[in-house]
Amino acid sequence: MENFEYFEPKTVQEAVGLLVKYKRAAKLLAGGTDLMLGMKEGFVQPRYLINLKTIKGLDKIAYSKKGGISIGSLTTWTAILSSGAILEHYPILREAASLIGGYQIRNRGTIGGNICHASPSADSAPALMVYGAQCVVSGPRRERVIPIEEIFSGAQKTSLKPGEILTGFRIPTPDPKSKGCYLKFSPRKAMDLPIVGVGALVRTSNGTFEEVKIALGAVAPTPIRARKAERFLVGKPVSDPSIRQAAEEAVNESRPITDLRASREYRLGLVRELTGQAITQSL
Amino acid sequence: MKTSKIRIKVNGEWHELTVPNQKTLLEVIRGDLLLTGTKRICDTGECGSCTVIMDGKAVNSCIVLAVEANGKEINTIEGLSQIGKLHPIQEEFVAKGAIQCGFCTPGMIMTAKAQPGPRDRLRRPLYRGPALSRDRCGLRRGHARGER
């Protein structure tokens, strides 16, 4: 690993100041479970490393029924898995968290780091998307809040502007009548990335789909919402043919690549299968 | 070379060191403190053989910077036995023959040590098996290099 200058800011403003000063030569360090690998391999060689873990309060979870939950970007997977509010109100996020890495990685890795690394296969992205999460972004100007879909701008790219830091997420309380799940397909049962990941959140009433959210991971340059499949299902009867057709719509809006993990065709097949399964399991 | 001064408590004893900023906690434990029970195998945070307990949590010391460990309490495999008496987890590993070559066993034991107790209602169901699996043995990295 190359040598670098190391900073431990105490406030978000201080970290923003360092980012503004050192620009692209600086990197933010959260859990380090992705960044450290890049630095060891030499893909990433920051001259200035800014450790966000020394900023108090960035790892807090706070829940209220009216306002929903706020999760600090430095919250580890272990902390997410230990949260009673997440267990009760956001089980899809909990499921995704439990499938990330191994025990040691979950003790270090953070939800904000996972999103800012912006891998198309980020396990937390589909869960955050179906829950309608908003990202809270601090920077040299005013704090801004953007939908989770808008933070991804490409593979390993975020829409964060120079000097901006993702400080946390706000997620409204889901309708208690809705149900959902996150399904991850990977060759190994643990410590693996998804070949395809599917999140679904569904509300039905009298045998009809009332609200449907579907999000897909690892099938496009960024995690995506399957909006055509969602629109197709709303108002349709809860039946096998409508679920099958929705899965087909999800396949049509996926743009997977062939890489060493799987071929494009295999991924499309998985989208069809997992989308159908995810909707069925969410009933 | 940019360096930092750190203070870490390892197995109950405080150490003060000046480390290059890019040095990992694993390199400090093995190289500076000469506690070589903690092993380096994959060196990418996957295999778990470098697991130590930092402020009560199991972490892969190969992907933790030494500067990040400043002020923290660290427990390694060397601190587990007391006055020549093995820790119950170590005794169980010996009794059940829970090793293959034994090289990565310290990581397994430290991971087991850090697991939440049975009374922790929320966390208990999360443990889905040992941190290390058979296809992650030390030869894996060598295989990968050979294939490249």
List keywords for this structure.
heterodimer, A: 283 residues, alpha+beta, Uridine Diphospho-n-acetylenolpyruvylglucosamine Reductase, domain 2, Uridine Diphospho-n-acetylenolpyruvylglucosamine Reductase, domain 3, Enolase-like, domain 1, five-stranded antiparallel beta sheet, four-stranded antiparallel beta sheet, B: 148 residues, Ubiquitin-like (UB roll), five-stranded mixed beta sheet, 4 helices, 5 strands, globular, disordered C terminus
What does this 3D model show about the protein?
- Chain A has 283 residues and is α+β, with helices and mostly antiparallel strands.
- Chain A starts with a strand and ends with a helix.
- In chain A, 34% of the residues lie in helices and 25% in strands.
- Chain A folds into 3 domains: 5-51, Uridine Diphospho-n-acetylenolpyruvylglucosamine Reductase, domain 2 (2-Layer Sandwich), CATH 3.30.43; 61-171, 2-Layer Sandwich (Uridine Diphospho-n-acetylenolpyruvylglucosamine Reductase, domain 3), CATH 3.30.465.10; 179-281, CO dehydrogenase flavoprotein, C-terminal domain (Enolase-like, domain 1).
- Chain A has 11 helices and 14 strands.
- A 5-stranded antiparallel beta sheet of chain A has the order 4-5-10-6-7, sandwiched between helices.
- The longest helix of chain A is centred in the C-terminal third of the chain and has 18 residues, at 264-281.
- Chain A has helices spanning 12-22, 35-41, 77-81, 84-89, 91-98, 103-108, 111-117, 124-130, 227-233, 240-252, 264-281; strands at residues 5-7, 26-29, 48-51, 61-64, 68-72, 134-138, 144-147, 152-154, 157-158, 165-171, 179-185, 196-205, 208-217, 224-225.
- Chain B has one domain: Beta-grasp domain (Ubiquitin-like (UB roll), Roll).
- The radius of gyration of chain B is 16 Å and the shape is globular.
- Chain B contains 4 helices and 5 strands.
- Helices cover 24% and strands 18% of the residues of chain B.
- The interface between A and B is medium-sized, with 32 and 34 residues.
